[in-house]
Amino acid sequence: MKERREGAAENTHGTGISPRDRLPELTPQDMQRYSRHLLLPEVGVEGQRRLRASSVLLVGTGGLGAPLGLYLAAAGVGRIGLVDFDVVDFTNLQRQVTYGTLDVGRRKLDAARERLHALNPEIQIDSHETRLDSSNALAILRDYDVIVDGTDNFPTRYLVNDACVLLDKPNVYGSIFRFEGQASVFWAARGPCYRCLYEEPPPPDLVPSCAEGGVLGVLPGIIGCIQAAETLKLLLGIGEPLVGRLLLFDALGMRWREMRLRKNPQCALCGESPTIRTLIDYEQFCGVRTAEAVPAATLATITPAELDRRRSSGDDIFVLDVREPTEWQICHIAGAILIPLTQLEQRTSEVPRDRDVVVHCKAGARSAKAIRLLQQQGYTRLRNLEGGILAWVDAVDPTLSRY
Amino acid sequence: MAHRVLIPTALRPFTRMQAAVEVEGPSLGELLQALVRAYPELRPHLYADDGRLRSYVNVYVNEDDFRALQREETPLAPGDVVSLVPAIAGGMR
Fold it and tell me: Which of A65, A213, B74, B77: disulfide with A208, CB 3.0–4.6 Å?
């Protein structure tokens, strides 16, 4: 018998979490469509009927959701719920392969439903066009067998995790950053939850998003496919689920590693004496709300139009761009000086104290941080460019590229 | 005795973009202290002001979470690899 790793969970055939009673019959056309599944002894006709009777909720329909939706629809999962409130953007197309160029500007849920139905008209697609929050999460998640999380922010990740633990649902987790991905299955009844792995999120100003940090387009495809495979295994009750294991993927080194995860007996949610028994305020928990509120209250700002007017009238303004060099190459304001936020502390001597300084980044968050840093160094003549270079492109110089 | 420490993308700006560094340390705690001495900009990302390791960067010795071992007291053997694994949130949008 194969040696089994400690803490690894095992499914035996037939114990999957999809329904087992009153399974729908497969039509002759279904037999053809799913024949490569039916030929697998681990799936077979009964497994395929169970997939048809099962339901999966995808929280988000972006990078990870693209391969997830496509493969789960193709596999014949009978009901797929989609949660999103976003619109397809040109910057999505590099990785969100559910959408085509003609979908730009459409609601993601409309475009995704159409695409998945084109792939498999036999399945039901539920659209939840909303931002998942503490008030609606339990009601939405309750109706599904498996929840798949690959959202793009910490508040929603903790929300999905907590709701899954409270409802006793498996949470198929995937996350990506630049060239790296993580995947696991959090299922408190059988192993650790996300809070056992990370008790608390990082402070928001330490979190670069994909929008700031970039991501290799194929990376969400790889991690999303891992999640899709885990989802099907859970529904069918076959193989070893990724419970108690964290898969780490590094596309640059092209290496997979696997870490052992343990349930934390002190976990506030799924530990021996839990203190979290209901959904909380996740924006507050992740510090998002306060971080956004501070700059507006304490930082002086300038609009792009006002900056343009003052520069045109000859005002001697030092325009400080605190983005990364890769962003500078895409577009920059003529005459601006680039000092990335990550280097600013070492390079403050390059910023004049006797001139008005307007600081900008992509959208205004990093420049707010830069201003706080400069204020601590005694700078006073500082203004934050409202909306960053994106607002400048819109208001002043549409020849520059958005990104 | 130097051990290999694997640095994730998110923390590489603080290790001069190196994906792996070699650091000496008979125990995990001593190794991590030597690491942030060699790369001071890494310190605030690993340690809170009270000197405790931050909960959103996990530390593994080979495959095991240091919390499941002897935490900072975990002795390191030749060939042990230390990994820093931060919480990342990117995904759908």
Answer: A213
Distance from C-alpha of B60 to C-alpha of B80, rounded to nearest angstrom: 10
Task: Give the Å distances, CA to CA, from A228 to A45, A148, A289.
Answer: 20, 9, 33
pLDDT of residue A68: 97
A90, two tokens: 């040109």
Domains in chain A (CATH in brackets) are 54-290 (3.40.50.720), 299-394 (3.40.250.10)
pLDDT digits (tens, 9 = 90+) for A178-188: 999 999 999 99
**SS3 labels along A255-288:** EEEEEECCCCCCCCCCCCCCCCCCCCCHHHHCCH
Distance, in Å, from the CA atom of A36 to the CA atom of A33, rounded to the nearest integer, reads 8
A127: its two tokens: 């659209």
In chain B the domains, ranked by start, together with CATH numbers, are 2-86 (3.10.20.30)
Distance (Å, rounded) from C-alpha A9 to C-alpha A258? 15
A302 pairs with which residues across the strands? A385
**Residue-wise pLDDT tens digits, A105-122:** 999 999 999 999 999 999
Active site residue A361: yes
* Beta-strand runs (E) in A113-242: 124-128, 146-149, 171-177, 180-186
Mean predicted confidence (pLDDT) in A126-145:
97
Distance CA A195, CA B59 (A): 15
Q: Does B88 touch chain A (CB under 8 A)?
A: yes
CA-closest candidate to residue A367, choices A297, A299, A290, A288: A299
pLDDT surpasses 70 at A216: yes
How far is it, in rounded angstroms, from Cα A324 to Cα A338? 8
**Closest C-alpha to A93, from A82, A108, A74:** A108
Q: What is the total residue count of chain A?
A: 403
Q: What are the phi and psi torsion angles at A275 (to 5°)?
A: -105, -15
What is the ipTM for the molecules in this complex?
A: 0.92
Where is B6: in which H helix or E strand? strand B2-6
- Considering A193, A210, A225, A331, which one is annotated as catalytic? A210
Q: Give the confidence band of A72 by pLDDT, cuts at 50, 70, 90.
A: very high
Q: What is the mean pLDDT of chain A?
A: 91
Active site residue A225: no
